[in-house]
Write a structure and sequence with these properties.
The protein is mainly beta. It is built from one helix and three strands; from the N terminus they run βββα. Strand 1 and strand 2 form a beta hairpin.
């Protein structure tokens, strides 16, 4: 994986993943990064439950708690 720095100084890695469904295979770019969420606890819990991003219904945007 390659490490990049974004406009907001977030360090992230890009990983190409393949999803097989029937006879078709689609390829997607996945971005992995550490981030800090601050705000209302209910909204943070909601983001944890549903994921963050536009493709969270496809399983992207998953959040892992780091302590």
């Amino acid at each position: 994986m390659l490490g990049f720095k974004s406009y907001y100084n977030l360090i992230f890695n890009i990983k190409r993943i393949s999803i097989n469904k029937g006879n078709a295979t689609t390829h997607h770019r996945a971005y992995m990064m550490d981030l800090i969420l601050e705000g209302d606890l209910n909204l943070i819990e909601f983001a944890y439950d549903v994921g963050i991003g536009e493709k969270n219904s496809m399983g992207f945007g998953m959040v892992k708690l780091l302590e």
